[in-house]
Amino acid sequence: MINERKLKILLKEIEIKIIRFIHEFGFCEINQIIRRFELKESTTYRYMKKLVRLGLVANTRIIQYQPRAYYVTSYGATFLSLDLPVIRRIPLNVYEHQLLVISIFIKLRKLNPDATWITERRISRDINDSNNKKHLPDGALVFPDSKQYAIEVEKTPKTKKRLEKILLQYGLQITYKEAWYFCSKSLVPSVSKIAKDLPYIKVFRLEEYL
């Protein structure tokens, strides 16, 4: 490995931002990096090739014929003093869902440039009670007035009972002013029906934000 002093000289500010972005969400594909930082594809691939070569980032193919997934190595997390757990294995069962969450983050960031996004990884880390079984949102949007909005991405249906329980939980907590549900076209009617008497739940069509 290159010594720390030389590595700091080699890294550009944008490359450090890319590493932090990847680590906040755990993993992502090249397309999310391109969209988040509004970079050319060739430039992005050059940055990522460099970060992989330096041992700060690694990549692997999770789904055949899809782009490879990038994640931050233990060395990269230690070097930048990142405070979230290092990803050891990218879980297939949440892979596509997480990519959708990142896409929603990118869109909402453009629509609400003054707001701050808190990832599910950070929300989970900041819960003190390890036995806490409460449902966690896919992310949270925090506005300058400190009001927080839970963000949920729903592409596949939950059982009616489970969804009702989650929606009611949002009415019993004080952290989030509202919960914004970004649902696939087929789920909008059913989620909207359950939420019709819950003013703190807002339902949006997922496809309009991708």
From the N-terminal CA to the C-terminal CA, the straight-line distance is: 39 Å
Largest sheet, in brief, is: 5 strands, mixed
CATH level-3 fold name of the largest domain: Trna Endonuclease, Chain: A, domain 1
What's the total helix number? 9
Computed over alpha carbons, the radius of gyration is 18 Å
Helix content: 40-55%
Would you tell me the structural class of the helices and strands? alpha/beta
Strand order of the largest sheet: 4-5-6-7-8
> What is the overall shape?
elongated
pLDDT averaged residue by residue: 93
Overall domain count:
2
The CATH architecture of the largest domain is 3-Layer(aba) Sandwich
User: Which residue ranges are poorly predicted, with pLDDT under 50 across at least 5 consecutive positions?
Assistant: none
Classified by CATH, the class of the largest domain is: Alpha Beta
Structure description:
There is one protein chain. The chain is an alpha/beta fold. It has 9 helices and 8 strands. The chain has helices at 4-10, 13-25, 30-37, 41-53, 74-79, 95-111, 120-126, 160-172, 188-195, and strands at 28-29, 57-60, 69-72, 116-119, 139-142, 148-154, 176-183, 201-205. It has a 5-stranded mixed β-sheet with strand order 4-5-6-7-8. Helix 3 packs across helix 4. It is elongated.
Write the layout of secondary structure elements.
Elements: H1 4-10, H2 13-25, E1 28-29, H3 30-37, H4 41-53, E2 57-60, E3 69-72, H5 74-79, H6 95-111, E4 116-119, H7 120-126, E5 139-142, E6 148-154, H8 160-172, E7 176-183, H9 188-195, E8 201-205
Helix pairs in contact: 3-4
